[in-house]
Each structure stands twice: as C-alpha cells, then as structure tokens.
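New to this. Comment on this protein:
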Amino acid sequence: MSRRGCLSRQSALNRSVKLSLWIGCSVLVVLALSGHWYYWYAPRARSGSLTPGASTTQFLLGADEVPLRLWIPFPHQNLGALERAADDLRGLSGVSSYALAQDLATLPSFGPFRLPPARDMVIAGSPDGDRIVVAASVYPLVARLARVAGKLAGNPWLSGGSVELQGRTVEVEWRDGMWLAAQGSFESGNARPVPDLEPTYALLSLKRAFGPVPGGLYRLDVGETGWRIVKTGPEVPRQAGSLPRQIVPSELALVAASADPGPPRDTTLRTFVLLAGEGGATEQISRAVVGHRGLGERWPLPAEKLLSGLGFEVSEAAVGGWSLAAYDPSAIRDVADQISSINDLLGPMEEESLDLGIWMDLAAARGALDGLVRALNALPLPATEQVRMWTVAAHSLASLDSSGSLSLRIEGEPPGLELRFEKQRR
C-alpha cells in the first residue's frame, strides 16, 4: 500500500475517533444535564433537613406572631410529585383556606415552576388571614435570572414590589438570596436553636393548639406503604409507627371517638360512626350513628337540633355496653353488628385517655362525606363552623389515594399525635 493510502486510512481513522469522542462527550453532557435536572428540578419526593442559621429555619422556629408555620424542603420538586400522584388537589386548597383564610393554590407561578426552585420554603400565617408569609431559599442562579426577568417583564412577583392577591396587598422582596412575600408586618425574631431531627419531607410548627390538635412540632415521613405525620420531641411517649395497622370494616366509612379522662370505671367514651354508601339528603344523614359508653352525654347527630324541630325522631338502643342513637333504627342495627370491630379500633381506654381518634376507609369515606356535605347544604342551615368543617374534610379526601386507609390518634399526657395514611396491601 502506498504512503498516501496509509495516510488516508489514518486520517479516516482519526476522523472516526474524533467523531466517536464527540458523540461520547455529547452523550455524557446530555446525561449530566439530565441528571442535574432530575436531581435539582424534576418532580419527585425528596427529603431534607433544617439548615442552622438559614433565614427560613428561623422563620419556622421564631415567627412567634404567626401561630401556624409549614416548612417544605425542595418545594418545587415535592409539590410537583404531589400533583402527579394526586388526582385532585382541591383538598389542599380547602385546607389552606380553612387554616389561613387564604387559598394558597392561587399564588402566581414562579416562571415555569409552580413554586420557586429552592432548597426549602416556609409558609407562615394566622387563622384570621391577617398575616401570611412565604419565604424560599431560592437557588442562586435561579434567583438572579428571576430578578432580571421580573424587571424586564415588569413582574413584581419575581423582581420585588407590591402584588395584589385575592384583594389583599402582598409585599415581595429579596433578602440575601431569599425570596420573601409577606402580607402584614413580619419579623423572624431572635435566633432559635435548631432541633436535631432526621431528614424529613415537611415540618409543621403550631405555636398553640388548633382545636383538638395540640401545639408543637410535627414531621412528615414518607414510606413505600404510605405516609405519616407525627409529633416530634422526647416528651412524646408514643413512638411513631408503634401502632399496629387498624382496618375499618367495609360496612363502615368512618369511625371517630373521644374520651373524657377520669377513673377507669367513670371514663366517658363518645363515638361518631358513618355507614358506607350514598343516598339522598335525608337518607345520607340517616347513615350517621352516635354513641357513648360510660357516664356523660352523647355527641349530637348532624343537624339534630334543626331536624328535631322539623319532626325527625331519634331512635336509641343499648348494645354491648354502648348507647347508640340515629335517625334510622336500621342504621343502629348495622352499627351494632360492628361493635366488636369498633372496640378493637379504640383499644383499652383504661390505660390512657384518647383525646381524638379517627379511622376511615378512604374509598367509602370519600363517597359518604361528599353525600353528607350535600345533605347538610340542602338543609336550611346557615354556614356554621360544623358544616364548614365537614366540607373541608370531604375536600381533603379528594387529594388522597382512595385505595387506602387513614387513621388519626391524639392521646397521652402531654398529648401526642399520629396521622397515618396506608396504601391498600395487595
């Protein structure tokens, strides 16, 4: 072979090698960028930890003027994962409106993201809606681009300035790379020590009790079979996940119970049971059964005061140590057949007091609560707190996988709390 032919073959080989290297490098760059995007931006459930000295951490721990504070790591990823997993997010909208008097689902988007791409974010507010703060530790590059884009587009939500949200003025500003949107005056307060916590998917701080929910710090844990919200702190006697899985019978949609503390023989235990199924307004209310065990009085039935005035009679019966009441005697018989299962859910009441317990099969509870809310709204009732509470509860279930169960226990002294969702085991 001639020298020219050898050189030609060598040159072709070099081009081939260069092309292969170029393709290989391009693939590596694409993979690196894809990995970077997935790790930092793609929707997925991702845990995180509080950062000592971070402004968001101090907002969570030191915002004494706002009693309800929620911390979320990597909010753009976790909310994106939640939106993919949930068929309907109206429940989250309903809960934020109920707790903060403001629908957080109406917040403007952060460019192409539903929430700011950030290491973490804190939402703090008061139940009367007079104060609300959203603070996010935005990624530095995203922060610079957002501010520039906001100034060019005249968008104060990104660049800073006054923004009108739901008829209220919110001031947006940037503080040392942190994006802050606040309604009303707000100060983070003095620095607080950061508790030593395992990585979690969210933290909820309650400065005071909200109804039956005690004040304190709560964490969200996510596992393969579901998730749980549990009160943190060494003073809580019950460990997270220590309760066995408790299944609501298929005939029942929801069981709720509360005990008045006292001597073992004098403990008053009240229950509310909602039978599975849907019907018309009158029929749906007839599926509710209340009962009590021990001294004291029972809970009222839904709209009992109004319906009693309209001539609806309440039937009562004694079954297995329980006094049961309902508008429909057949509903009492249905619950009487499940007394043993209800007793299993409640456990030994002599050992510790139960402030509140709720157990539900989500598929049955979703339909039953929707029906109950429609029934209550069909009655000539004012917009009472009770009707509002039932409405929020029904909407909240719409954001959960219906093929699972939900349980809540608030008990002990000091009171501990565990809210658990478990997927259906196949």
